Amino acid sequence: MRHTPHYLMTDPEEVRRLIRAHPWATIVSPVSTGLVASHYPVILDESADGPGITILSHVGRPDDRLHELGRHEILVIVQGPHDYVSPSWYAPGDLVPTWNHVTAHLYGRPEVLDEEENYAALSLLTDHFEKGRSGGRSLAEDEPATRREARGAVSFRMRVDRFDARAKLSQNKAPEVVDHVIEHVGEDNPNLADEMRRVRETSRGE
After folding, report:
1. Which pLDDT band holds residue 88 (cuts at 50, 70, 90)?
2. Ordered structural domains, the chain, with CATH
3. Are 53 and 13 in contact (CB under 8 A)?
4. Which residues lie across from 30 on neighbouring strands?
5. How much is the pTM?
6. What span, in angstroms and rounded, lies between the C-alpha atoms of 113 and 116?
7. By CB count within 10 A, which of 34, 36, 145, 199 is most buried?
8. DSSP codes joined into one string, 141-189
9. 85: Cβ contacts below 8 Å, ≥ 6 apart
10. pLDDT tens digit sequence for 34-45
11. 36 within 8 A of 29, measured Cβ to Cβ
């Protein structure tokens, strides 16, 4: 991503917050035949030791072979709220549009999990997304059947070696312009407006 210092997200906790709120990710691998990309949910491995970021995910077979999973570093892209920002929301004469976004690029070498760990990871993923739902389901309701289904997936754990994250949220604009953009963005994209408010309040020390 373009290196613009005042858009950088350097706090790992902010990246964790982004992953928790936006778990649908793009997985990119530089394989022997070129680049391969797939899309799967990711969650934080909250049990991992240390201050770093560790994620859990899975791919469906044969994506594990297509990605040559476990043989090299991969890139996992997590995309938060984003939207077009019209110059019509700026002062007269300021004519250049932009796109506000919150994005994190996570780099690491995935550890492919064995059959038992794979089932545990898939159970954890299912429980994570079923939690709080009316009538939420669990793989444990029919373990023999779901264990058979689990053979069609390959789970992995990835300790993030480094990340490159941006929160580009109109920080280069005057406060009154930011407030105006938030007002307009909030009409159709309240999540992005909320992110803009967070950055604004942090910069004000509120």
Report:
1. very high
2. 5-172 (2.30.110.10)
3. no
4. 35
5. 0.94
6. 8
7. 199
8. GGHHHHHHHHTTEEEEEEE-SEEEEEEESSTTS-HHHHHHHHHHHHHH-
9. 97, 98, 99, 100, 170, 181, 185
10. 999 999 999 999
11. yes
